[in-house]
Amino acid sequence: MASESPLTQKHKTENPYEDEFGYSRAVRKGPFIFVSGTTAIDPVLGRITLHPNSAYHQTLKIFSEIILALEALGATKEDVVRIRMFVTADEDSDGVGRALKEVFGKVGPAATMILGVRFVDAEMKVEIEADAVVL
What we know:
Strand 3 and strand 4 form a beta hairpin. The chain is globular, with a radius of gyration of 14 Å. A 7-stranded mixed beta sheet has the order 1-2-3-4-7-5-6, covered by helices on one side. It contains 3 helices and 7 strands.
C-alpha cells in the first residue's frame, strides 16, 4: 500500500514491525527512494522468519521484497544505486554475496556488507537496505 502527498510517497507492507515501530517499508522523496532494513519475514504469519537455516535464501526473499517496494513507488531494480547488507555470521557472507550478484549483478550498485550483527529475531541472518534514484 502506497500513501501519497505532493512531496513524499510511502509504501507499507504487512510486516508487523512497521506498525509496531512506526516506520514505512520505503519512502520516495522526489527522485530518491529509501528502502528500510528488510528481512525475510513471512507476510502471512507475521513474525515468522522464512528460511531460518539459509542466509542465501533469506537474501533472495529480501531482494524480492525490496524490488516490490521499489515498484510500488515507481522504480525498478535498475534504479538501485546503493545496497547495505547486515549479516549475523561471517560464514554467511558468501551466500549473501552470491544472491547479490544473481539479483543485482548487472545493475552494479554500490554495496556494503557488515558482519557480526544481531536482529530482533535470532533466526534472522540478514537485513538489507537499498537506495534508488529515479531519473
